[in-house]
Amino acid sequence: MGRSHRASKEGLKKLDQAFKIKGKTQDYLAGAVGCTRQTVGKLFAGRPLEKRLFQALCHELNLDWGDIAELESEEDPPGLRNMNTLEKADQILRWQESLSSVAEKPNFKSSKKTYIIITVDGDIENFLNNTEAREAVLMATKSLSGDMSIRTERIEEGSIKITFSGSPQGLKKLEELYNSSNLTEIEGMSIQSVQLFTEEEYKHHLVEEIKVDGARSKNLSDAELSNVDLRGADLRGADLSCADLRNANLENANLENADLNCADLSSTNLSNANLKGVSLHDAIIDGKTKIDDKWHEVWKILNQETFSADLRGANLSRANLSRANLIEANLSRANLIKANLSRANLIKANLSRANLLGADLLGADLIEANLNRANLLGADLLGADLRGADLLGADL
């Protein structure tokens, strides 16, 4: 299992219900567990979260995280946790009957993780937008393999390339069915190829794919990429949320607009990496992480106490500071050209003479902020709260 949890379909319903009962805001939840509002939003969107934060948020909502998380089960089909004894027995019987055409159920006690990539014909956009189709394919792979722990890791172009993780025995069974021509389609979609990987082989496969084709906008959420060499790699817009990048070499890599929320960057080399627009909420950085001063400052703003922070003259151009807490911060003469300050808390912040050319201030809280002589040309102020703000001499 990776270093994150995500809510299951049923878990999301329980989260929504508990949130309504709690009667608090997402900002409150974020403050209660020491994370960002953006991270709380990811919980309710069913995206991966670091296990510690996932469990803490569930606890704050008076929920058992085990009932919310989409877990890899070794025994029961999905949904059995909430069934009574008779319902569970009936469901297990149905599940076993569905496996009658498959070999005896393997023993799935191995802790090793295996991956399989099944490429099928079809329109990827339609598939991504069809939740029922995706769930049907997942259940079909579980039934055919006899492995109810299988989960979908990522879906990519080519035509539709679906990566599953599961037990070695279960995924090996799928490969054997395909090689013996007993598995030629899945849910009406013709299978083009089936590739089976051990955990290390899959890691190597990912790295080589990134080096050759780049990973622009690629879904690498929760990926295990520790100790890899990706110097100079094109990772623009890649989803690396909760990815394990410990001790990885990303020197000179292009990570513009990538999502590194909750990623583990301990001892990672990010020297000279392009981190424009990168989201670093809840990312882990330690004393051995090599990161340029500018981006280390951005990380600190997002993840450490910043009340009344002294950021006079700071170079924060193109930094992703969305939802940052900058209340009463001194940002006079700061370079915030094309910075993302959407929904940031800038109450009573000093932005006098700051350069906010083309900055995104969508929904930002600028109550009583000092914008005296600030350059706001081309800035997006839609929904920004400017009550009591000093705009004397500001260039709008």
Quick rundown:
The chain has 396 residues and is of the alpha+beta class. It has helices spanning 9-22, 26-33, 37-44, 51-60, 65-68, 85-98, 124-128, 131-145, 168-179, 199-213, 293-303; strands at residues 4-5, 49-50, 114-120, 151-157, 160-166, 185-186, 189-198, 269-270, 290-291.
What does this 3D model show about the protein?
There is one protein chain. The strands form three sheets. Strands 4-5-3-7-6 form a five-stranded antiparallel sheet. It has helices spanning 9-22, 26-33, 37-44, 51-60, 65-68, 85-98, 124-128, 131-145, 168-179, 199-213, 293-303, and strands at 4-5, 49-50, 114-120, 151-157, 160-166, 185-186, 189-198, 269-270, 290-291. It folds into four domains: 4-68, lambda repressor-like DNA-binding domains (434 Repressor (Amino-terminal Domain)); 105-201, Malonyl-CoA ACP transacylase, ACP-binding (Alpha-Beta Plaits, 2-Layer Sandwich); 216-285, E3 ubiquitin-protein ligase SopA (Pectate Lyase C-like); 305-396, E3 ubiquitin-protein ligase SopA (Pectate Lyase C-like, 3 Solenoid), CATH 2.160.20. Helix 2 packs across helix 4 and helix 8 crosses helix 9 (168-179). It contains eleven helices and nine strands. It has 396 residues and is an alpha+beta fold.
